[in-house]
Amino acid sequence: MSPSFLGFKSYIQRSVIWLQGLLLPCLLLILWQYNSSLGASHAYAFVPLQKIYSAFVQLLQSGELWFNTWGSLKKAGLGFLLGSSSGLCLGILLAYSKVLNALISPLFNSIRQVPLLGLTPLIALWFGNGDEAKIFIIALASFFPMVINTFQGFYHYDKKYHEIARIYQFSWWREFRKIRLTQALPHIFTGLNLAVPFTWITTTASELLFNAGAGLGNLMMKAEINAEMDILLVCATLVTLCGACMTMTIHIISQRVLLWRI
Question: Which domains, from first to last, does the chain contain?
Answer without folding.
Answer: 51-261 (1.10.3720.10)
